[in-house]
Amino acid sequence: MVIDAFAAIDAFLERWRTSLTPPFTPAYVDGFIRRHRAQVETLIADTLAQRRARGGERPAYKPDFLAYDALTTAQRRLDAQTDKEVMAQLLRRVDDQFVGGYSERSVIHNFAVEYADTRTEAIFLRDAGWDAVPLLLERPALVVVAGGHVVAVRDWMGGLTIHPDRKGTLNHLFTDLERAEEKLLHIREVIDLYPDTKEQLVKYAYATWREARKAALNLKQPTPNTTSERKRKSP
């Protein structure tokens, strides 16, 4: 993973070097890089990590997780807002993509529904004890936080990546995420809504979030002990 990161940095430096015009000669640039290689590598690695995180991409190495840390605080505040406020933010992002020339159906299916589903899965993961935060990024993602830092990322492609320092310690997260996905599929069957338009998206998102919270609440309700109740009523 680290080798790939260094290769990306070298490629970035080469593109930057060839794009420069006088008075910066190749010899001057090469000397500058040799003298400040460590600082330049750190700066480029952080920049590339932030770019990948904003795109909801799979984290490749430790700086990527730090980049997700930086995004998660604001995204947590967004998720904590009312459904109506979250939907307003989501629809603004949808409209931005319309301006970019994408079709309504494509944006709804590949972006908006993906975020709505991710937020639903986060509800189930939190119910299972995880600090899960859905991320409304260029491509939606889901993160799990522990100790104040992102320790796992489910990227827009659906892959779950664990922080290198937490390998082998979060294996049960895979199981809980699978259960969350199964519960989401069940909700989809129950509400029977398959959005192709913004109007349908709003109905779909509100319905899935409502049903997810209802299901989580029902799981927390204590089961009545009918046997004990009958005994107390017996003469």
Describe it.
The protein has 235 residues and is α+β, with helices and mostly antiparallel strands. The chain has a domain at 63-220. It is 67% helix and 9% strand. The chain contains 9 helices and 4 strands. The chain has a 4-stranded antiparallel beta sheet with strand order 1-2-3-4. Strand 1 (131-135) and strand 2 (141-146) form a beta hairpin. Helix 1 (2-19) crosses helix 3 and helix 6 (104-127) runs parallel beside helix 8.
What's the assembly state of these chains? single chain
Overall structural class, as computed from helix and strand content, comes to: alpha+beta
Average predicted confidence as pLDDT: 85
The separation of the N and C termini measures 72 Å
- Spans of at least 5 consecutive residues whose pLDDT stays below 50 are 226-235
Which strand order spans the largest sheet, edge to edge or round the barrel? 1-2-3-4
Total strands: the figure is: 4
N-to-C SSE series? Answer: HHHHHHEEEEHHH
The proportion of residues in beta strands is: 5-15%
- Helicity, in percent? 55-70%
Count helical runs: 9
Largest sheet: 4 strands, antiparallel
Could you tell me the radius of gyration in angstroms?
23 Å
Based on Cα principal axes, name the global outline: globular
